[in-house]
Design a protein that fits this description.
Four copies of one chain form a homotetramer.
Chain A: H1 3-26, H2 33-40, H3 44-51, H4 54-77, H5 83-101, H6 116-134, H7 144-160, H8 162-170, H9 172-184
Helix pairs in contact in A: 1-2, 1-4, 4-5, 4-6, 6-7, 8-9
Chain A binds a DNA duplex through helix 1 and helix 3.
Chain lengths: ~190, ~190, ~190, ~190
DNA sequence: AATGAATGAGGGTTCATTCAT
DNA sequence: GATGAATGAACCCTCATTCAT
């Protein structure tokens, strides 16, 4: 990659970074192309040269999240550890990614592109659930559907509540408590 | 209240109703003041005379949700039924309200007002948890904080996933499955 | 019409007038909404309030031309005068309208709306041709198609050549010459 | 001409060709420099290196039309054929060129350069008219001005109405009809 | 000499808000 | 008190043009 390409990649990366920061802070809807341009130190036109449209920029942003998550999750799923430890790993990964991107769980019902992020997570967890059931780590009396929804609630809950994420990081008791709740429910281990 | 004031209240109520319908259908961001005015059959200016700004109209909308929820929850909390039945009642209420208002979980980081809706729900549940612990219906080994977060995840999960709400309504197994998961977690009843 | 409506109509008429002047001078493509707004002494938004889009404003402009022409032509077609005098009348009308609007003959082949102006003129002339043939004022050895095209060339020729229009107005000899050419062609009266 | 210059000329010719194709298809206004660059397989900057500005490129395009027409016309004017046949030849040439370049008749009032194409045609025809008058093929009772305008109307009529050109090519009767009209006018040969 | 990248100026359009009546 | 009309600021996007390499 010579000087030219480096410069282009530099700009593109600057834009990406600026977009990431702003999108994650305020949500893509609230961020204008102008905002991003200012933050990246380029003109609006440069953004269009590099990404074509705001939509594509948002797309790129979401794709980068997905790829980030996918990578982390794939790694964890092959860990040689206990099911619980893996689950903790997934949760921690999820918290990290969520924190970084301040992911918005997209509302369905709009004409937006499908929620690729949620989809990716769901797929990963689905595999995890199958494994858990097979290995006797999960209840077998419930449908995959119910388990998926349950896990989804957790995952989204973490995504949507930064203040809880915050407290989890500082307060291990809360972290463990939630994990325990997840595993044993509100009734607790008998 | 004389004729004038009655008419004024009439307009105000029309606006409120129009706003509610549109906000709940498309989200406050996607609805313009003009949209509301047309739907309410008044001029935009009338909206400003009555509410001062769009922000205040949104505020009003959110407050009406809160008061709606509060009422329902207060009723349920004094039911003479089992803890579980009450919980089911709360959940159902929450689903109903969520469906009606298509509640958006507000993101922090913006200059918006604090998430009054979530706050209200949280308060109600906090009381419910206290009661549950006292009556031995909930694990006592976990902090109120953890339990609150857990319940919040559930509540938001239902709010944010209309397709799951939908399936719950049609498929009692899923509904019961999720309730069971909530109560006993993924490990299941021992 | 009270003060309110008058004000609105005032603005709308101002905008129309400004648009007409600019469109006719530079062509709709070269005129921006901002140009019109400045000339009309209103904000761009006002134009959108009144016309919805630039396209509709252009539409309105073209429709007003058509209706202007139509009226004039209809009047002339019922004149109790000789065929030639009528033709002169039509031509003069056409020159006047063309001068006022500096009509662009739209290029076919683009996705623009059909050339309603040309269409209207053509219709009027078609009727005129039929009458001329019936009354023995026009050659009957030629197809209506050929005659229509011939007349169209004349009409467009006048539209597209302001400098000729100009000279025609000042120099009756040219005017009569062209009329004679139209009637007897380059060979001349035998 | 060494390798460098040859390559430069190559680029320049590529650009010209691309511009011609696009201008003639969509009109100079609707074609962006980028469009041309992509089609020519060069960078936008190369276009500026070779032509200085888009305006000059348009200029160049129009000049090439003029030179094309001029050449054809000059050839025809020295034909050893009847006046009518020559006229037919001119007309046919004009149709061909018009079809190839999809010539736009420029509107006055803009800051564009004068209509060089029309000017060139006019000059050619002026000569032709002089010849026609001298040889008794044209009426002598009319000013050169009127005759020129008459011919111009025809020429522009053909340029501006592709659908008529089309029908002329397929339907010899229309073609002959128009020629006859041109020669004998609407009154017809006595 | 050719290029990839960047840009300023301007395009059409929307919207929350204000103001004269 | 309600309204019709008007508006400034912002939004996304395009394009002719320039400049470092």
């Amino acid at each position: 990659m010579d000087g030219f390409e480096r410069r282009k990649e530099q700009s593109k990366e600057d834009i990406r970074r600026a977009a990431e920061e702003l999108f994650s802070k305020f949500g893509a809807d609230k961020v204008s192309v102008n905002d991003i341009a200012r933050k990246a130190g380029v003109s609006q036109a440069t953004i269009y040269n590099n990404f074509g449209s705001k939509d594509e920029l948002v797309h790129d942003y979401r794709k980068s999240i997905v790829s980030n998550i996918s990578g982390r999750f794939r790694e964890i799923l092959v860990w040689k550890k206990s099911y619980l430890e893996k689950f903790q790993g997934l949760l921690q990964s999820w918290i990290d990614v969520t924190d970084r991107y301040n992911i918005e769980i997209e509302r369905s019902g709009t004409k937006q592109s499908p929620d690729t992020i949620g989809q990716e997570i769901e797929n990963s967890f689905r595999e995890f659930i199958k494994e858990g059931k097979e290995q006797g780590n999960l209840r077998t009396d419930l449908s995959e559907e119910a388990l998926t929804a349950y896990i989804k609630f957790f995952q989204q809950g973490i995504a949507n509540n930064p203040e809880i994420r915050d407290r989890m990081r500082r307060d291990e008791k809360l972290s463990n408590g939630l994990l325990s709740l997840f595993i044993y429910g509100i009734r607790g281990q008998s």
